[in-house]
Amino acid sequence: MKTIIVSGAVALVTALLGTPLFIGLLRRKGYGQPIRVEGPKSHETKRGTPTMGGAVFVIASLIGYVVGHVATGMPMSASGVLVLLLMTGLGLVGFIDDFIKIFRQTSLGLRGGAKLAGQAVIAAVFAIEVLQRPDGFGLTPADAHVAFLRDIGPAIGTLPFVIWVVIIVAGTSNAVNLTDGLDGLAAGATVPILAAYVLIGIWQERNDVTVVLAPQAYQIRDPADLPVVAAAVLGGCVGFLWWNAPPARIFMGDTGSLALGGVLAGLAICTKTQLLLIILGGLFVIITMSDVIQVGYFKMTRRRVFKMAPLQHHFEMLGWAETTIVIRFWLISGLCVALGLGIFYVAWLPR
Length: 351
Prior knowledge:
mainly alpha
């Protein structure tokens, strides 16, 4: 518990104090956000706002994680390090995408295929690594199963598992990326999900199969360290959100949105709550489906279901204030997390 608190606090302070320094650096370099021509006209005032801010909370999270372990003497775990490497790798893909946008002064960065290929390679490496590195009890960071609250059904094999992980990682990171369209929306919606994974990790650690011999105990390799990862990223995200909240002084860019999606996917895989993430991240699912529906319906009928997709921009076009949309979407995210945690707890109760 001490490591969780120290890691979260250090990451929060680092992001809180480091973000304005990064804003100043980006302004001096002229690294401002290009705006989509077809986007809402209200976004024109955001042109030139510093972007790539996700780099701040990625670095803050890594610092918080390391300092927390050094300060408390708790050893770092394979699961924790792999999840953070997944986050960092996807953040690097997003950084390249953001830098191309800034260099070309266009809202288009990496081609869709190139970005997806980068996500897939990093996710595949992660999938292979989490199937290795057993601990003293023979537990690996993940195993070749589909999981909801714990593993379900028989093992699916290494190759199908790698494909499954690629789908989870790419789907989650792109879902957060689609949500990142308004000031503070993606960061604020991710905060309660990370808080949920802190609680889930603590619960799994207290009911770990290596400590408690019970039918419903959890077979997780590093249940004590995964909530530390979640807390470190949570602290970094909150510190960044102080400057990203409406009106944002900095945007996270693809650097931040892909990284956040990556850490959520990694936590879901290593805590064996892969399908539960669909409920916890319900807001991301809704926003992604609005984009899928819009594109699919337009291709079939040449008509649009929404005034603009993803969904948050539809409400902008209806005249809703940006802060109204952001706060209401935060509330939806909180409700989805409450539902997911309720399911997680109720399913654990003895029948």
